[in-house]
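Morning. Coffee machine broken again, so started the prediction first thing and wrote up yesterday's gels while waiting. Chain of 177 residues, entered below exactly as on the submission form.
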Amino acid sequence: MNDESNSNSIKVLQYIQNNPGCYLRQVKRELTMSMGTIQYHLNLLEKNGRISSERRNLYKHYFPIGLFEQNEKDILKILNQETAREILMIILEKKPTQTDIANIIQISSASVNWHIKRLIDFGLILEQKDGKFKRYALGVDSKNIISLMKNYHPNIWSIWSNRLAEMFLSLSKEENE
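Came back before lunch.
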């Protein structure tokens, strides 16, 4: 392997270590290398046992070897996807209905339904009957989500932490009134 190829492998590996759960186009976009170069290095790193991958529908997610349990990998996959991450945040804040979610993030109910099904399949959320409505709640400990976000998505964490702080402040005000 020549120096440039080795250098690119190191860049790809470091990106995956800093962004576990990332996918091919995300790596390509961030590292500004050609698709072929990225694919070559991802395959080489996987073959050499430096990274692992998991396919989920259209995406193949990459992880450093030996760092994460399966449930953490599932959370990281979702945190890399903006809409699913936003839905997870809404569910973390309150127990919304599908209509609540659609109204908050301004997407169709069908799109919300698709994302909800994926989150349920991952075991990240639970569906609860509330009369004629279905409400959604976290199916995992919120500390796991928060910890992974703080460590691997610090920019997103700063936005979420502000929202969570506001939520806790409003809850404490309600309790005091």
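The mean pLDDT is 85. Going to sketch it on the whiteboard this afternoon.
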